[in-house]
């Protein structure tokens, strides 16, 4: 980036002095009281602001103050007028046809353009539920729903590994509107229909006993979503999150450890890797999912996962830890940390590669057991797992989202 002072002082003495540039900005907030500069600002989506060269630095600073992010800068040539008279590039998004159903699939932006907070709580996007079905088979524990929303009427876009916020209707016991809850996105950036018009979630209805009264308590937002009717409107915010993004490297090794609905981001990864085979991303590495669940009936997306394993066995490994049906080596219940311990030496070797990324998503309690298993594997090689893990984190190869 050029120096602000240099730009201001030399604007009239360079060939750029009289030129105009277009900033594409996302995430700007509306503030009529503090922003009096007359530029068109929306609460969400991309805003295109035409800026003279002499004011480029000042405008960058103003955008930052307003919470915006500049995703592109281009010369103001070949532009047209958008809504409210704002400048918009004439070029249309590139499209390609999905190999699965021939529907147009818009090319996603570069990974450097990570969409964040396109929609905020004070001005959420109103989506519409178009699908809501049960994922737990008969005999399973609890209820988990796959819920899909139509987002075609707005500017919401997202990447695999991000989350969206859901604002449930109504008020709490203090009369205040319910706060939003975040849910990991379970669909790829192109959506389950591969048309860039939907976003999907994997939602377990929260249910627990009140510690004092013994009364059954149901989660506010999860209950709302699990019982949401097809056709109903829903308030959506986001997306948020940069920790769980999938690497661009098509040759990467991607190790995924999930419990329960922690499968959500990994479903998005696997669908992008193997189901889409989109022209801008063709996975040729190794994906390994270690999935912890209580019963076979609780294996979420079971049919799809096992079909992927059968079809792409050279690139996808699937390992279950079914706690109430399988036993570990000591005769106790088989939890995910026991599976990690069984394969710890192989996992340790895979992690030595610079392009191996490890992801953990689900219940926080599994972290200690995973660390213990990998500590033992590292010690066999005379290494310190804690120090090695720090190096992976620093290299952005160790990704954790637990609750």
Task: Write structural notes for this entry.
- This protein is of the alpha+beta class and 403 residues long.
- It folds into three domains: 4-89, Allophycocyanin linker chain (domain) (Dna Ligase, domain 1, 2-Layer Sandwich), CATH 3.30.1490; 104-240, Elongation Factor Tu (Ef-tu), domain 3 (Beta Barrel), CATH 2.40.30; 253-402, Rossmann fold.
- The protein contains nine helices and 20 strands.
- Strand 6 (95-97) and strand 7 form a beta hairpin.
- Helix 6 runs parallel beside helix 8.
What does this entry show, briefly?
By secondary structure, this protein is an alpha+beta fold.
Q: Keywords, please?
A:
alpha+beta; 403 residues; six-stranded antiparallel sheet; 28% strand; single chain; Rossmann fold; five-stranded parallel sheet; 9 helices; Dna Ligase, domain 1; disordered N terminus; Elongation Factor Tu (Ef-tu), domain 3; globular; 3 domains
């Amino acid at each position: 980036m050029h120096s602000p002072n240099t730009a201001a002082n030399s604007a009239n003495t360079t060939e750029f002095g009289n030129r105009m540039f277009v900033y594409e900005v996302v995430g700007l907030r509306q503030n009529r009281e503090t922003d009096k500069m007359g530029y068109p600002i929306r609460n969400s989506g991309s805003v295109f602001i035409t800026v003279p060269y002499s004011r480029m630095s000042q405008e960058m600073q103003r955008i930052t103050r307003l919470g915006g992010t500049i995703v592109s800068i281009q010369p103001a040539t070949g532009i047209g007028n958008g809504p409210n008279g704002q400048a918009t590039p004439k070029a249309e998004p590139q499209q390609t046809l999905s190999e699965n159903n021939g529907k147009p699939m818009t090319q996603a932006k570069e990974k450097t353009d990570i969409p964040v907070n396109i929609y905020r709580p004070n001005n959420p996007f109103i989506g519409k539920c178009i699908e809501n079905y049960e994922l737990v088979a008969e005999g399973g524990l609890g209820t988990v729903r796959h819920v899909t929303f139509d987002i075609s009427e707005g500017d919401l876009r997202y990447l695999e590994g991000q989350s969206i916020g859901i604002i449930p209707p109504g008020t709490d016991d203090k009369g205040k509107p319910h706060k939003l809850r975040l849910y990991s996105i379970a669909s790829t950036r192109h959506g389950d229909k591969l048309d860039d018009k939907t976003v999907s979630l994997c939602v377990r209805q929260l249910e627990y006993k009140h510690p004092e009264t013994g009364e059954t308590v149901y989660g506010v937002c999860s209950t709302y979503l699990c019982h949401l009717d097809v056709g109903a409107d829903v308030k959506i915010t986001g997306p948020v999150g940069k920790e769980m993004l999938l690497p661009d490297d098509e040759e990467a090794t991607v190790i995924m450890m999930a419990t329960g609905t922690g499968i959500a981001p990994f479903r998005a990864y696997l669908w992008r890797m193997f189901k889409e085979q989109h022209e801008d991303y063709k996975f040729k590495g190794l994906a390994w999912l270690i999935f912890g669940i209580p019963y076979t009936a609780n294996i979420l997306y079971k049919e799809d996962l096992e079909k992927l394993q059968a079809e792409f066995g050279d690139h996808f490994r699937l390992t279950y830890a079914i706690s109430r049906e399988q036993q570990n080596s000591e005769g106790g219940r088989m939890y995910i940390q026991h599976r990690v311990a069984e394969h710890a030496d192989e996992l340790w070797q895979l992690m030595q590669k610079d392009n191996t990324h490890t992801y953990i998503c689900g219940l926080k309690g599994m972290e200690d057991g995973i660390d213990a298993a990998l500590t033992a594997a590292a010690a066999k090689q005379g290494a310190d797992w804690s120090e090695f893990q720090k190096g992976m984190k620093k290299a952005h190869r160790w990704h954790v989202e637990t609750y």
